[in-house]
Amino acid sequence: MYAFHAETGTIIWKFRTKGAIKYGVAIDEGGGRVVFGSMDGGIYVLRIQTKTLEQVFQARFGIYSTPVIICNRVLMGSLDKKVYCFHLFLRKKEWAFETSGRIFANPAVDKESLFIGSNDGRLYELDIATGAVLSRLQFTERRVNKTQIAHDSNGERLSYVPAHTCKLYRMREP
User: Fold this and answer.
1) Mean pLDDT value across the chain
2) Does the global pTM surpass 0.70?
3) How does pLDDT run across 112-122, given as a tens digit for each residue?
4) What is the pLDDT of residues 30-79, one digit of tens each?
5) CA-to-CA distance for 82 and 126, rounded, in angstroms?
6) Are the C-beta atoms of 160 and 154 separated by less than 8 Å?
7) CB of 170 closer than 8 Å to CB of 154
8) Is 89 exposed, middle or buried (0-12, 13-18, 19+ CB in 10 A)?
9) Residue-range definition of the domain harbouring residue 9
10) What is the CATH number of the domain that holds 52?
């Protein structure tokens, strides 16, 4: 992990994990933290200004998913087939939800719902606070891309679900 100066491009600090960092980071701007996953199974929380390691949450296998931070919670999937929710301030795991397939997809958030795809071919809608399944849709192929959420002029949720087979599904909330 590298932190660069925005104007000069010079390296401010480096942080090494025991595995590769395959995907993106989430920034907790209010708390001055950066959160990212590593193929060593660690979900790292660092202070941006000081590179101080605040917390490492551990998954069983590597992390290929970019985290999302919402309401002081870190949400992300793992190759151990689980979706994790960690509380930034309490520094503890709030819940974990197990799917039937590894998770490469990035989570998407809309209101109190988390949407994430799994290699089991399902798109899951989970309650952010509890991890309970609100809905699940079965597709014919694995879900590896991030679902995008939008709202129409009436405020109804539209979900755009990219497929591994070069298709894009659009779903309207019933």
Assistant:
1) 87
2) yes
3) 989 898 989 88
4) 889 999 999 999 999 999 999 999 999 989 999 988 999 998 999 999 99
5) 12
6) no
7) no
8) exposed
9) 2-172
10) 2.130.10.10
